[in-house]
From TrEMBL:
<dbReference type="Pfam" id="PF00194">
    <property type="entry name" value="Carb_anhydrase"/>
</dbReference>
<keyword id="KW-0449">Lipoprotein</keyword>
<dbReference type="GO" id="GO:0098552">
    <property type="term" value="C:side of membrane"/>
</dbReference>
<dbReference type="GO" id="GO:0008270">
    <property type="term" value="F:zinc ion binding"/>
</dbReference>
<keyword id="KW-0812">Transmembrane</keyword>
<keyword id="KW-1015">Disulfide bond</keyword>
<keyword id="KW-0732">Signal</keyword>
<dbReference type="GO" id="GO:0004089">
    <property type="term" value="F:carbonate dehydratase activity"/>
</dbReference>
<dbReference type="InterPro" id="IPR023561">
    <property type="entry name" value="Carbonic_anhydrase_a-class"/>
</dbReference>
<comment type="similarity">
    <text>Belongs to the alpha-carbonic anhydrase family.</text>
</comment>
<comment type="function">
    <text>Catalyzes the reversible hydration of carbon dioxide into bicarbonate and protons and thus is essential to maintaining intracellular and extracellular pH. May stimulate the sodium/bicarbonate transporter activity of SLC4A4 that acts in pH homeostasis. It is essential for acid overload removal from the retina and retina epithelium, and acid release in the choriocapillaris in the choroid.</text>
</comment>
<dbReference type="InterPro" id="IPR041874">
    <property type="entry name" value="CA4/CA15"/>
</dbReference>
<dbReference type="InterPro" id="IPR001148">
    <property type="entry name" value="CA_dom"/>
</dbReference>
<protein>
    <recommendedName>
        <fullName>Carbonic anhydrase</fullName>
        <ecNumber>4.2.1.1</ecNumber>
    </recommendedName>
</protein>
<comment type="function">
    <text>Reversible hydration of carbon dioxide.</text>
</comment>
<dbReference type="InterPro" id="IPR036398">
    <property type="entry name" value="CA_dom_sf"/>
</dbReference>
<keyword id="KW-0456">Lyase</keyword>
Length: 304
């Protein structure tokens, strides 16, 4: 028992000793870890000019007709894998079962892992913001180009990583498709613990594909050190519903120091002239064309 206690202390002290990065919420009283404002000191790329997340100002986005729908492959497969509390977030490892292409990605990307960013008890917690609004949580599904075998390898390529970002919104009713993940949380409250997730597919975790034609696209970075500028971001407009209780369940997890794992997001970064593109759906083109033709028809009818 004493040995176990000592080894836990050793782990705590190792993480408390300066080098490890942490979120702003962990910096407070005793400065025992490196907060977002100082990540640059341990990972220089965090101070560069293509960083993520950003605030998306919708009226300044550029509509791009090449941004067709994302093609999902394997998203309906059941994932037989573990969910892990890694000390910064909860992560689900995905064993290359799923792929994405289309959407002007220019390559096929395979899924590696997913993780989340959240607030406190369902309060604001997303990383990206839309017109300054922070959603309660954000899902990141991390993919790498097919030819690479790990995220570490893919970050050497400016478009080596493709992350799909989804926002959550508070709903009246619980989202039953999330019960597996939410129920698993009570078994992974401490960092370093994991539990097997059963009967979950990626499709169960995201909105139906027909609601995903509207999204934002920009070039950015990983939102944790080393902040590698290798990410093609795709941020979907359609949020995923979760009840207040479901959102709050994530606040039961703890960081290494035993405090509540809350506000796990990096503050928004400057855009430095980068463009943010917005997909233009086929439905939009058709309805606009119909509108224009009906206007011309009525003018014609009036003139005759
Ligand atoms: C801050 O550090 C001091 C000395 O290391 C310790 O006595 C104190 O309990 C710490 N406070 C917190 C809030 O961790
Ligand atoms: C959590 O752990 C308990 C005890 O080991 C187990 O009975 C239960 O099935 C686990 N729950 C989940 C969702 O994994
Ligand atoms: C999950 O936890 C077990 C110990 O309970 C450990 O042996 C295993 O390596 C862990 N798996 C992962 C992927 O972290
Ligand atoms: C979270 O903790 C609260 C208070 O301890 C408890 O009532 C609630 O059931 C927990 N939620 C989950 C999902 O474990
Ligand atoms: Zn993330």
């Amino acid at each position: 028992m004493n040995v176990l206690y000592l080894s836990i202390l050793t782990v705590l002290c190792r993480f408390a000793s300066s080098e490890d990065w942490c979120y702003q919420t962990q910096v407070t009283c005793n400065k025992t870890c490196v907060g977002p404002d100082e990540w640059e000191t341990i990972a220089p790329e965090c101070g560069n000019r293509k960083q993520s997340p950003i605030n998306i100002v919708t009226k300044n986005t550029l509509t791009d007709s090449r941004l067709t729908q994302v093609q999902f492959t394997g998203y309906q497969e059941m994932i037989n894998t573990v969910i892990i509390n890694n000390g910064h977030t909860v992560q689900v490892n995905l064993q290359n079962i799923a792929r994405i292409d289309g959407a002007n990605l220019g390559a096929t990307y395979k899924a590696q892992q997913l993780h989340l960013h959240w607030g406190k008890n369902g309060g604001p917690g997303s990383e990206h913001t839309i017109d300054g609004e922070k959603y309660p949580m954000e899902l990141h599904i991390v993919h790498i180009k097919e030819k690479y075998s790990s995220v570490e390898q893919a970050i050497g390529d400016p478009s080596g990583v493709a992350v799909l970002g989804f926002f959550y919104e508070e709903s009246e009713n619980a989202n039953k498709k999330y019960e597996g993940i939410i129920n698993s949380l009570e078994n992974i409250t401490h960092p370093g613990t994991n539990v097997t997730l059963g009967d979950i597919s990626l499709d169960m975790l995201i909105p139906s594909h027909d609601k995903l034609e509207k999204y934002y696209r920009y070039q950015g970075s990983l939102t944790t050190p080393a902040c590698s500028e290798a990410v093609v971001w795709t941020i979907f407009e359609e949020p995923i519903p979760l009840s207040r209780e479901q959102l709050s369940a994530f606040s039961n997890l703890t960081f290494h120091d035993g405090t509540a794992m809350v506000n796990t997001y990096r503050p928004v970064q400057l855009r430095y002239g980068r463009e943010v593109f917005y997909s233009r759906s086929y439905a939009f083109c058709v309805s606009t064309a119909l509108l224009i033709s009906s206007v011309f028809t009525s003018i014609y009818v009036l003139m005759v």
